[in-house]
Predict the 3D structure of the following.
Amino acid sequence: MSNSKLYKGSLSIIILKLLTETHKMYGYEITQKVKELTQGELNITEGALYPALHKLEADGFLEVEMQRVDNRLRKYYKLTQAGNKEEVSRIEELERFIETIQGIVNPKPSLG
Amino acid sequence: MSNSKLYKGSLSIIILKLLTETHKMYGYEITQKVKELTQGELNITEGALYPALHKLEADGFLEVEMQRVDNRLRKYYKLTQAGNKEEVSRIEELERFIETIQGIVNPKPSLG
DNA sequence: TTTATATGCATAAGAAAATTATGTATTTTT
DNA sequence: AAAAATACATAATTTTCTTATGCATATAAA
């Protein structure tokens, strides 16, 4: 994924966010999109991606639609209604996390 | 630590950062400081904290100084020279992570 | 033409970093 | 007297990743 361990826990949020924007995507497409968006900084490995997709599906946040293109199989994922709600709350969670961590590493000097 | 899994991987950075500011701290003090800084959002558990401190020490980033206060033992930790360097690079890593993740979840709309 | 790379899925073994549950001990508050 | 706070620690388990492997087709390069 990246040499940084900080990305741990963020993969499912990334997936949910991309599917909010693009409506339906398949696994390989997600890896390429993330690589592009991050200018190569973040490379999602298959070993991380596919289990994450399967879990989101099992949790009822994604639904699948198979499609054969150029004689190769693609599994298109899209958000369910529950997935849409989940995306909103997970993004809020991420914003809160970023604020919190910045409050620690970049604390406002006390005015006393 | 928090109900959010996003903090996974950030504990060692938090410790290094606090010790850059406060020079020397003991474990329990770190948990209280973090709770205060985050207004209760982040509560570091002992099961996470102590192994993290031990690892940072084993890696040569922290050194220990025992002190008995009110008949209770405290292990004060402070940064080594290597720990100081590590703090700088880990903070940079965190800033990069935040930029990258924001580039994904908050993408600039293309101007086309 | 054969070989490597890209596309596309998947899982298994192992590592890393947490959680949860204990355990010990002293001090302070209720 | 009992509960909560202070102060350390570790063990079992869970989660989420990495690394390695496997299968299959299409395209680019040697």
